[in-house]
Amino acid sequence: MDRNQITGFALLAALLIAYLFYNSHEQKVFLEQKRADSTAYAIAHPRAIVDSSKAITAEKAAVSTDSVIEAQRKLQPPAYNGKAEIVTLENKKLALQFSSKGACPIAANIKDYKTYDQKPLYLFNGTGNYLSAILPFDNGRSTADLYFIPVIKNEPNGDKTIDFSADLGSGKKVDFVYTLPADDYMMRCNIILTGMPANSLPVSWQTLGLKTEKDVVYQRSGGTLQVYFGDKNDKYDYFTIRNDEKIAHPDFTTSWVGFRKQYFSTVLIDDEGFSKMDIAYKVNAEDTNVVAQTKASMQLPLKTGGNEQSASLRWYIGPNDYHTLQSYKIGLDNMVPLGYGVMAFVKYINKFALIPIFYFLGSFISNYAIIIMLMTIFIRLILSFFTYKSYLSSAKMRVLKPELDELRAKIGDDQQKFSMEQMKLYRSAGVNPLGGCLPMLFQLPILLSMYYMFPSFIEFRQQHFLWCNDLSTYDSIASWSTDIPILSSVYGNHISLFTLLMTGSSLFLALYNRNMTPQDPNNPMMKYMPFIFPVFLMGIFNKMAAALTFYYTFSNLLSIAQQFIIQKYFINEKAIHAQLQENKNKPPTPSKWAQKLEEMQKMQTDRGKIQPRSNKK
Fold first, then answer.
1. Are 230 and 335 in contact (CB under 8 A)?
2. At what angle do helices 368-382 and 384-399 cross, to 10 degrees?
3. Which of 118, 126, 123, 472 has its CA nearest to residue 316?
4. Coil vs helix vs strand at 126
5. Going by C-beta distance under 8 Å and a sequence separation of 6 or more, which residues neighbour residue 157?
6. Mean pLDDT lowest for which of 491-495, 514-518, 519-523?
7. 325 touches 335 (CB < 8 A)
8. CA-to-CA distance for 107 and 122, rounded, in angstroms?
9. CA spacing 20 to 30 A to 322: which of 113, 204, 235, 417?
């Protein structure tokens, strides 16, 4: 090791010793300062003197208070204390979950159906669903706050029963007994009060209806979410519920009340009749899983038997299947909207004509699109006589068009005189100008009946046909999430192919009819109205069930084919023209309607000829 290396190591050692000495000195100064600060803080904040005897007394008092609370809790009736448990009651059609707190069903799974997303279908699910009663005890104690002890029984006939019992002490008790038949959607519910005499029982029933279909907005619309109520005489009524709306019926008595949610319903039934009904409805637009919250408050009459008062309810939880609802024979089938309001008359066409045909075809055909086509063909065959008469009337007016053109050229712009001469020509030739309206008058009720029936029938739900995977809702071949002003509100954010086909076939049919029917040049609006109407309806039907738009599409195509066949093979315009000319040589035999129409036109013409009086004296 040379001299330079020794010098280097010596300098490093000196630096290390200096650092250690400096660090030790600074640490000593820091500790002394910290000690001084602690002393100053203690002087400024003296510590409170604790009396150990008082501390022991306080501790004993706390223990004593807890003991009193525990003792009081033990003295309370068993129904006031407990833990909520979930109990399941299940049959072939339903799986119901009950909470022991409140003794009410909080979830209902309808087994035979799936949601639009192919998930288990729950009509409702969660503690926000309840059936509760205000007891005539303890200043109106609610059963929703009580803890019940459940006892499950299996009946010999396959029925299953849960008896929820709550002991209120002093001989007072309340029981909720639910019985679920082995293969039915109708559950029985008995409410039994012991030691609490009363004539009626205030009841609250709330349901949070879950989304089950493709479009939650459509499920919330007035056509799909309604409250129904009726009596055992098959008289019923309904009202469409709107957001944050409350409706009271203080003097109204009904045997059943039901919340309909498009294809599924929940209905509470009491043959003795509910009274003093209040119904509220609320929608949270931001919650896309819940369609609506519906609540009904009402008075439930009680029967007296010894020391007990009881009420016997039935509770329907299931699909809006027309046959199923009709089988209960209390008017529940009215919850399937087959026509109401000013169109209530079409309900009877559906009930006594179209529905029997539909179920007859469905008994041996499983494809509902084929059923739609067969129903359309069957209806067209029934109306074919009137359709032929309509086309024959159009042909008669068409062959008379040259003579009408001569009259128009001869008379000029005097429309009233032309109308009178036109009626004379029609009468002499034996032509009824209203003959072409008959088929439309007969077909219109059928079209309206289908308008109500197809979107309401659960049989079309999740039925596939061609590109459409669900005939109960619109067939979307394209969609977008961005809202386009006016277009989105009127047309929607999707394109339905069946709606486009319906509109296209309607426009083609209108064009075909225009070429086959003489046009009035003095009324240009009638010339374009058949083309405006289908385009106007396109925005409405774009949101409707594909079963309906497919029916209208096929009906249009059938009309085009039927009209072509009749015009081609059954109507001979030369023979018709010869017959009309021959009719002119016969004595005129005008109908009463034609005479009345001609008299009205003549009176209007004479009135126009009267000159106003002069004001000059």
1. no
2. 60
3. 123
4. coil
5. 182
6. 519-523
7. yes
8. 7
9. 204
Give every CB contact of residue 416 below 8 A, 6+ residues apart in sequence: 601, 604, 605, 608
Phi and psi of 319, rounded to 5°?
Answer: -80, 160
Q: Are 125 and 136 in contact (CB under 8 A)?
A: no
Amino acid at 371: I
Q: Residue 152: enclosing H or E segment and its boundaries?
A: strand 149-154
Q: What share of the chain is helix, strand, coil (3-state, %, to 5)?
A: 45, 25, 30
b/e code 219-245 from CB counts within 10 Å (16+ = b): bbeeebbbbbbbbeeeebebeebeeee
Q: Per residue in 121-135, is it b (16+ CB within 10 Å) or e — as a string?
A: bbbbbeeebbbbbbb
| Of residues 370, 315, 347, 318, the one with CA closest to residue 110 | 318
> Where does 408-503 show beta strands of DSSP type E?
476-479, 494-496
Q: Does residue 391 contact residue 562 with C-beta atoms inside 8 Å?
A: no
Taking only the tens place, the pLDDT of each residue in 33-58 is: 545 554 444 454 454 444 545 544 54
Burial 554-581 (b: 16+ CB within 10 A, else e): bbbbbbeebbeebeeeebeeeebbeebe
Contact 94, 108 (CB under 8 A): yes
User: In Å, how far from its chain's centre is CA 308?
Assistant: 40
Tokens of 268: 């509470």
Return the ∠ at Cα 475 (arms to 472 and 478), rounded to 5°. Answer: 150
Q: Which tokens in the block code for residue 471?
A: 């005939």
Region label for 483, one of left (φ > 0), alpha (ψ between -120 and 50) or beta (otherwise): beta
SS3 annotation, 12-59: HHHHHHHHHHHHHHHHHHHHHHHHHHHHHHHHHCCCCCCCHHHHHHHH
* pLDDT of res. 302: 92
561 dihedral zone (left: phi>0; alpha: psi -120 to 50; beta): alpha
How is residue 125 written in tokens? 């699910």
452's tokens: 């109500």
| CA 506 to each of CA 513, 525, 533: distance values in angstroms, whole numbers, following the listed order | 10, 18, 9
Cβ neighbours for 80, distance < 8 A, ≥ 6 positions apart: 146, 147
The pLDDT, as a whole number, for residue 225 is 55
Return d(Cα 253, Cα 256) in angstroms, integer.
9
Task: Supply 179's token pair.
Answer: 């019985």
Tens of pLDDT along 369-421?
999 999 999 988 888 887 787 777 777 777 777 777 777 777 777 777 777 77
Query: pLDDT tens-digit profile of 535-591?
Result: 888 888 888 899 999 999 999 999 888 888 888 888 777 777 777 777 666 665 555
Question: What whole-number distance in Å separates Cα of residue 543 and Cα of residue 499?
Answer: 9
**pTM of the prediction?**
0.75
Q: How many CA atoms lie within 13 A of 284 on its CB side?
A: 10
Which domains are present in the chain? Answer: 82-336 (2.70.98.90), 349-601 (no CATH)
Residue type, 431: V
Contact 94, 103 (CB under 8 A): no
